[in-house]
Design goal:
The protein is 46% helix and 14% strand. It has 262 residues and is α/β, with parallel strands linked by helices.
Length: 262
């Protein structure tokens, strides 16, 4: 399927690895020019080089920095001639017991997983509506749909973003201008984040990481973890000309793990 977005510009956050990288790869494959961001410059530059090799016809710009700061956001936005596509993404806050979290811990989680995406949406949405095209995809978490007790920081911050998006996406001046905002909710994907949480569970249970990962695979109806490539393909479709009638949605990708009908 021709997605109709070749020549567009995308800003993809936290794109040096994992799901963010999967999204950047899929967009580059469709002929989209990308600005990718992440904190670690070495990994980011390596990813940028690989993206350029994937499609020499597109331009790939790498901006290392902390997207949760005003300076980091300004640098990323300045590198993008125009943001036709925004993929908001940030690593999830650490798991734990809510009794141990102070205000500063909560503020860090909110900055990364709620306030930063909102600030970037605020920066790009009016130019998008003026041009008559825009696609915003927020990578959140399946925990928005089915909260996980030890991920209270993520449950809270990402649910706040979800509520915000639900209102803005349905503003007629946004939706009628061919600007969509949707949330992608990943379940268990084969990423560094999943392996880090598995390592913690393994240490607590006195088992190997491989044992924990095997148990988690078998607990999923698909008997596997998702891949960054299939996640990126879904993201690219949401950014396409064919997805203009999809907005304000929370789209779950979890191999069927969520047990509900709705």
């Amino acid at each position: 399927m021709e997605l109709g977005i070749a020549g567009r510009w995308a800003l993809v956050c936290a794109a040096s690895k994992g799901l963010g990288r999967g999204c950047a790869e899929a967009l580059v494959g469709e002929g989209v020019h990308v600005v990718i961001t992440a904190r670690g410059q070495q990994a980011l530059e390596a990813t940028a080089a690989e993206l350029r090799a994937l499609n020499p016809a597109v331009e790939v710009r790498a901006v290392a920095g902390d997207i949760t700061t005003a300076e980091g956001r300004a640098a990323a936005l300045a590198a993008c001639p125009q943001v036709d596509i925004l993929v908001n993404n940030a690593g999830g806050p650490p798991p734990g017991d809510f009794r141990e979290w102070d205000r500063d811990t909560w503020v860090r989680a909110l900055d990364a997983n709620m306030l930063t995406p909102i600030a970037l949406i605020q920066a790009v949405i009016d130019p998008m509506t003026a041009r008559g095209f825009g696609r915003i995809v927020n990578i959140t978490s399946a925990a928005v749909k089915a909260p996980i007790d030890i991920l209270g920081l993520s449950n809270g911050a990402r649910s706040g973003l979800t509520g915000f998006v639900a209102g803005v996406a349905r503003q007629q001046r946004v939706a009628a201008a061919n600007v969509t905002i949707n949330n992608l909710l990943p379940g268990p994907f084969d990423t560094d984040r999943l392996r880090a949480t598995a390592a913690g569970a393994a240490a607590k249970a006195g088992k190997s990481i491989d044992d924990i990962l095997a148990l988690r695979r078998q607990a999923n109806p698909s008997a596997r973890f998702g891949t960054a490539q299939e996640f990126g393909a879904y993201c690219a479709f949401l950014c396409s000309v064919h997805a203009g009638y999809i907005t304000g949605q929370n789209l779950l990708m979890d191999g069927g793990a969520y047990p509900g009908t709705f």
